[in-house]
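Chapter summary example.
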Amino acid sequence: MALDKEFKEIPGTIVFDAEQSRKGYWLNQFCMSLMKAENRTKFKADERAYLDGWKLTEEQKQAVLDRDLNRMMELGGNIYFLSKIGATDGKSFQQMAGSMTGMSEQEYRDMMIKGGRKIDGNRRIGEDGDAQRPRKD
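The structure predicted for these 137 residues follows.
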């Protein structure tokens, strides 16, 4: 049973804890398999067939096929393991991070060089800000 975790109120943040680790075990094992050239070749030849050889949920498989990194993280993926998918696709970590924010690689790079995202109004769910759910009070 999941514990009530205060950090779940941080907008846009997925903390990779023991619960996430258990949820994403096979997803992360699949990612690590891509460290071997022969596995990358098999995966690129028929991605669906390769994924079907792993104990992934259907949602995890679809997230991989869609290259939806945010969804993979929600489903237990650890960004450092997920980076193996990007590397298999010939993408840099910076390109992957940009895709997770809806920015181009250049836009993401420029934002980071300028100090990253502004935190105003984005600290906790329930505070006012553009990334917040509406208050219930």
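To summarize the output: The radius of gyration is 17 Å.
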